[in-house]
Amino acid sequence: MKNYILTFLLLGLVHQYSLAQIASSDLRQIKNAAQYKEGEEVLLKHFARSTRLTREMMSNPEVCTVLGVIKVKKSGTIEDIGTLNKVPKAFKDQFFQVAKLTDGKWLPTNDTSDFFYVVIPVQFKLSGADYNVNVENIPTYFHESIVVVGYFPNNGFYNYQEDSKYLARVEEFMAKGKNDKAIETMEYLLSRQPLNTNYYRKAIDLYEKAGRKEEAAYYTALMKVISAKS
Known about the structure:
The protein is α/β, with parallel strands linked by helices. It has seven helices and nine strands.
């Protein structure tokens, strides 16, 4: 899989999570793909050229991958824009700003459906971080990944922590009965590796134990969609 890579000077990133994911009902239709009028190559170049690291992304630097979704009407106009995974708000907002510029540029791919979908992974990387998304389970109907790389000014660096560090924190929080903290940490891991089905299983278990049935059901459905691959 090739990636479209864009680089930026980076000062930092916010760490506020957005809850504006797509509806669970959309997951059942997510494979019903829309087609970009100008072709796949033009679409991905648009995202690569237009994606930016904004002023909001200026503290608590972190890595993230947005599984962005565009929901399209038969007319080719956009019905909704969201994400499959929970991500920090600044990342979701950046995807929204770029995705909305494609309004009216879509084609339906059949005559029977009311809505069509586009899934574009956008990976935000930081200089010095050995961070890559595990694409082993990436579904075939996802578009190619967009990669945005941030470089720190004045030879600064990012203190990247491996996933194992955060998984250990999850266990520590659970042992102390701090379920909300454990869930928050798992959500962060899913913003880093949104195609890791083992992380979904862990998050689902935590949601169920916390009585958060709606979120458990959503991630159960999403895990099935990702596991299906095609």
